[in-house]
Amino acid sequence: MMLLLQWLVVILCLQIEEAVSTDSKVPLTVIGTVGKSVILPLKISSDKIRTIVWLSHNSLATVDVNEQNSHIIITDSKYYGRLKIFRESNYSLQINNLTTEDENYYKGQITIESQGQSETLIQEYFLHIYEELRKPQITVNFTGPENGTCNVILLCSLEKEGKNVTYNWISLKDGEEDTAYEGPNLTVSWRPGESEPNFICRVTNPISSQRSQPIPSSGLCTGASSRNYVMLIVGIVIAVVLCVAIMVGSIFWKKKRQGFIQYSPNNVQQQGAATEGNTVYAQVNHPYRASQPS
């Protein structure tokens, strides 16, 4: 009795383990490129496949398999003309002209007939879609020299980054490459007389890798000093022009204001009215009359 009970416990544990392993099955990861094709492989050893139903967020296609040929019925309109079945590869599914919208979970539901009985197998996938990267661009920011040290910040960027992109800065020295730093930003410092560094930014994702043009450090700080000097001169010129314009405008405004008061029609009328209302008398002495005796 005890032996029978032990066997029952062992069988129950095996069934539980099998159920857990089936439910926790990890989907197969498949990587595709925008505009290209990808294959979702079916790994089935049986030659008794009768039907295959491909599913994603909804039903994509149904494959009817027979000994002479296989017929595919597309059930999702956005996959018209984009699906292909490979009979020699266990009826694996190929998706053509990939777009970013094709990234999703996929499932192959396979029906097998053996000895008059049907069995359903399921294979799951997750399709990642990536775009090929373009050459990165480098932006140079000057933080200004400190104690004779040249400080420069290099910024590496992409016009369209996408997902899972990594940045690496590669130092070029004596014709050899060395990965100096990981990340899009790099701060570089060196003193006069030291060997000036030379860098390349490399960007990668799971399907592609691109490099920037080499960024030589020679002349960067000199360029910053020249730029600051030019900006200073431009600032002084602008300030002088503004001062002159303000002075000329002030003088012109004062002159115009004085002319307006002097020649104002109201002032002319007031002066005319005052003249009409008053009589002016003048006394004139004749010189000859003053010299005659009385």
From TrEMBL:
| One GO term describing the cellular component | external side of plasma membrane
Q: Mind telling me which InterPro entries this protein's record contains?
A: CD2/SLAM_rcpt (IPR015631), Ig-like_dom (IPR007110), Ig-like_dom_sf (IPR036179), Ig-like_fold (IPR013783)
Q: Which UniProt keywords apply?
A: Glycoprotein, Membrane, Signal, Transmembrane, Transmembrane helix
UniProt subcellular location: Membrane
Q: Where is the signal peptide?
A: 1-19
TM stretches of this protein: 229-253
Q: What is its main location?
A: membrane
Query: Can you give the residue ranges of the Ig-like domain?
Result: 136-218
- Give the UniProt record's GO annotations in the biological process aspect: T cell activation
Q: Supply the SUPFAM superfamilies for this chain.
A: Immunoglobulin
What name does the UniProt record give this protein?
SLAM family member 9-like isoform X9
Native source organism of the sequence: Phascolarctos cinereus (Koala)
